Amino acid sequence: MAKKKSGSFIKQAAILAFASIMVRFLGFLYRIPMTNMIGNTGNAIYSAGYYIYTFLLILSSAGLPAAISKMVSERLAAGEYRNAHKVFQISLLVSGTLGFVFMVLMFVFAKQIAEFFAHSPESYYCILTLSPTIFIVAIMSSYRGYFQGMNSMLPTAFSQIVEQIFNAFFSVYLAYVLLGYGVDKAAGEKNVILGAAGGTAGTGIGALAGLLVIMFSYTLLKPVVYKKTKYDRNRETAETGIEIAKILLSTAAPIIAGTAVFSMTNLIDANMVQRILENTGHTHEQAQNLYGQLSGKYVTLTTLPISISTAVATAAIPSIAASMRLRQRQEIKRKMNMTLRVSMIISVPAGVGLGVLGDGIIKMLFPDVPDGGILLTVGSVSVIFLALCQTVTGVLQGIGHVKVPVIGALLGAVVKVILNALLIRIPSINVVGAVLSTTGCYAVASVFNLFMLSSIMRVHIDLLGSLFKPLIGSAVMGGVCFGAYKAFFALLNSNTLATMIAILIGVIIYGLVMLLIGGIKEDDLLAMPMGGKLVRVFKAYGLI
Prior knowledge:
By secondary structure, this protein is mainly α. Helices cover 84% and strands 0% of the residues. It contains 18 helices and no strands. The longest helix has 61 residues. The chain starts with a helix and ends with a helix.
C-alpha cells in the first residue's frame, strides 16, 4: 500500500513536471524571438518590471496554493469534506482581496516603484501592464491550491499550459507591434521601452486564459464536491470562516515570506547590479546590456530544470501533509527520500549540461545577441542548489515546519547582498559576480534547510546517496557532451547542429549510465506515467 501511495504521489508530480516542462519550453520559444527583437537593453527593462511584479505577486498570493493544498489534503484525509470545500471558498475571498489591493498599489505607484526598487524608470510601462495580472493570478491560485489538495494535478497542469500558450503568442505579437510605435521603423529604429511592455502585456492575457480554464474545470467537478459535502458526517468538526481564514493566513504567511526572500534575489540584482556597474565606470547603457544578459539569458535558461524540482516539491506538500495528519511516520520518510532522490536525478545532469554547453546554447538560442555564455557556464551549479533548496522546502512545508525555509532564505539573501557588493565591483568579474552570489545564496539556504529537516525528523538525510549516482552519470554525460560538441562543430561547422546533437547524445548517455549503475530503479519507472511500458522495453535489452 505504501508503494502504491508513493507511486500515486510521483505520478501527480510527473503530471505537474510535464506541464512545467511544457510551460518552460514554450517560455523559451517566445523569449528567443522576443530577446532577439528587443535585445539585451529591452531584456533589462522587461526583467526589471517583471521581477517587481513577481515580488508583489508573491506577497499577495504566492503562498496560498501551498497553504490551501496542505489544509485541503489534511481535511480530506480526516474525511472532513465540508471543511475542505470551505477552505477553498474562504481562500477565494482572501486571495481576491489581497490581489485587488496589490493591483491598485502597483498601478498607482508604478513610477516610484520603477525608479526606486528596480533602478529602471524605463520599466514604468511594464509595471503598468502587469498590475491587473496580480488580481487574476491571485484568484487562480485558490483554484490551483484546491485541486492540488485533492491530489488532482491535471486541472492545474492544463491551465498552466493554456496560460503559457496565450502568453507566448501575445507577448511576441505585442512586443513586435509596439517596437515600431512612434519611431521610424524603416530606418531600423526600435521603441524597446514599449516593446518590453508589449512582452509583459502577454503575461496578463495568458493568466486570464488560464483562469477561465481552471474555473471551467471546477464547474465540472462541483456536483461531485457538493455530493460529498452533503453526506459529510463530521459536522461536529465544522470550522467557521474566521477560523479557516486565520489558519490559512498563518500557514501561508511563512511560505510567502520564504518565497518572497528568494524572489528578492532577482530583485536584489535588479537594484544592485546596474547601480554598482554604473558606480564602477560603466555607462547606463553598458550596465543595462550586462544586466540584460543576466536576467534575460542566465535566469531564463536555468529555470527550465528548476521547473521539474518545483513540480516535485509542489506534489510533495499535500502528500506529505496527509501522511502527517494520519501520523504515518514511515510513509513520511519514504516520500521525503523519494522526493529528494527524484529531484537530484533531474537537477544534477541539468546543471552539468548547462555548464558544459553554456556558450553553445546561448549562441544557438540568441544568434542576434550571442553574448552571456560565461554566465551560464559559471552559474550552472546554482541549478543543483536551487533544486535541492526547493525540494527540501516542499518537504518542510508538508510536515508543517513552514517557518524554517524562511530563515534559510533570509540567510541566503544576506549572503547574496554581501557577495554582490564585493564581487560585482571587481572589473574582471562584473556581472559574473551576481551569478556567483546567487550560487552562494542557494548553497547556504540548502545546507541550513537540510540540517533543520534532519534535526526535526531525527533521521539521517542520505544526501550523498541521492547525489552519488546522479553525479557519476552526469560526469560521464558531461565528458561525452563536451567531446561530441567539439567533434560535430569541427565536422559540420554549425554551432546549432553541434549543440543539439550533443544535448541528444547527453540525454541518452545519462539515461543509460543511470540504468546500468542502478541510479534509476524499476519502482521509479513504475511510478511514472507509462512506466510499465518503459520497464518492459528496458528489461528486453537487459538494462534493468
